[in-house]
Structure formats: C-alpha cells, structure tokens
Amino acid sequence: MKITVVNGPNLNMLGKRESGFYGTFTLADLEKKLSDHVGARAELNFFQANAEGDIITFLQKLTADDRLILNAASLTHTSIGIRDALSATQVPFVEVHISNVYAREEFRHQSYLSAIARGVIVGLGAEGYLAAADYFLRG
Ligand code: DQA
Fold first, then answer.
1. If you average pLDDT over every residue of the chain, what do you get?
2. What is the 45 CA–ligand 1 centroid distance (Å)?
3. What is the mean pLDDT of residues 105-125?
4. Domains recognised in the chain with CATH numbers
5. What is the pLDDT of residue 139?
6. Dist CA 74 CA 81 (whole Å)
7. pTM
C-alpha cells in the first residue's frame, strides 16, 4: 500500500511555530516518527507546500487507489479548490490537524474538506498522523 502525506502552509515551520498549539517537533521529526511507525507496512510519500496551487496540482495526480493523510492547514478553512481536487480524484483521505481547532478561533471550526473525508482527527499532535495511517493499514 502507498500512503501519501500532504502538509499545507506553514507546516514547514513546525518546531519554530506556536509551540503551545503545535509542540516542538519539526516536520522532519513528524515524518520520521510516522515512517518508524509504519515501517515496512506501507510505502510513504511526503509532500509539503505553502502555495494552494502547488497542493492542488499535487493532489490532481492522486487516484482512488491512493490513500491520503491531509493536513491542509489554513487552506482547510478557505479552499474550495482543494475540496474540488479531492472530489475529482476520489482519493480516500483522513483530514488531520495537530491542534484542536475546535478549541481555537471560530474561523478554524469551518472545514471545506471534512464532509468528503473518511474521517477527521484533531488535537492529538503528531499522533493524529499515526492514527490516520493505522486506519488505512487496518482497512
Ligand atoms: C492546523 C490548524 C489550522 O487552523 C492552522 O491554520 C494550521 C495548522 C493544525 O494542524 O492544527 O496551520 O491545520
């Protein structure tokens, strides 16, 4: 199985960014933790971009046979384009947020993606990515 992990804007800043919400781990730490957890059980493919168009172009290459863990970060709350790319490819995905978006500002409570996600994991830090991978590995 191949699992693709896509992280959106500012997640390349993990480790330097609002540690109260995002912890002190870096994106590289997160990717290593997930790789160690998954081991040989799946092939992992990582992508991070700050620009919405780059994420859309990347998502367009996925198919219904892929499995996607997606933290679209701020674009979760704004991007109909990402929603449409996900609908177009029909890629099964789990939406992940490191922080508990429901305990934060109201504008973070709205997601354009959740309604078409297999599931949504919020507030578990890096563990949320591991839980999403486990979901696909058990399926
Ligand atoms: C985030 C939550 C978003 O509201 C925020 O814009 C992010 C990160 C999270 O992982 O908690 O950049 O997706």
1. 98
2. 21
3. 98
4. 2-137 (3.40.50.9100)
5. 84
6. 13
7. 0.98
